[in-house]
Amino acid sequence: MAKVGYMRVIGDKGFLGKAEAFYQDYKVNYIDGQVLPYKRYGLNVNAGYSYEGLYPVLINGWLGAYGAYETANDGNQKDPKYNAEIPTNVKGFVYGISGSGEVEVVLVRKLSLLVNYTQYYDLKSKFSKSNYAFFGGLRYYIN
């Protein structure tokens, strides 16, 4: 999984907003022990709050929604084991809710080290109901 985004501090009370583009590539379980390749890319929009009482360590929480385009079984409508028709679309738009928790360590004024846990709950997908990811990286503040 990979993601890139833009975050904005809203006011001076610790409130945040962000938008992220993401890409996921993993496997999902299907009937009779079959495992299908699954890909999804989309946009995630979140509101959040930052606790800054431990500065230079910041603790951020996020809650939001996403929309994405998914492809299961590489777009093939037949399953790989029995060559039977999959009874639902293997491609299409899906949506859901997401939440994140992150720890940010300020290195210098506009640069932070970031550790992030993100959970996605799928409300429309027939193949993926929930997944999560751990991320690590750098955050650079442009404003």
Structure explained in plain terms:
- The chain is mainly beta.
- The chain has a single domain (2-140), classed as Porin.
- The chain has no helices and seven strands.
- The protein has strands spanning 2-10, 15-29, 35-54, 57-72, 91-108, 111-122, 130-140.
- A seven-stranded antiparallel sheet has the order 1-2-3-4-5-6-7, with no helix packed on it.
- The radius of gyration is 18 Å and the shape is elongated.
In short:
This is Conjugative transposon protein TraO. This protein is mainly beta.
The number of helical segments is: 0
- DSSP summary, beta strand count: 7
How would you classify the helix and strand content by structural class? mainly beta
Percent of sequence in beta strands: over 45%
Stretches where pLDDT is under 50 for at least 5 consecutive residues are none
Give the radius of gyration: 18 Å
Shape: elongated
CATH classification class: Mainly Beta
Strand order of the largest sheet: 1-2-3-4-5-6-7
pLDDT average, as an integer? 94
Index terms:
143 residues, mainly beta, Porin, 0% helix
Helices and strands in order, then pairings?
Layout: E1 2-10, E2 15-29, E3 35-54, E4 57-72, E5 91-108, E6 111-122, E7 130-140
Antiparallel strand pairs: 1-2, 2-3, 3-4, 4-5, 5-6, 6-7
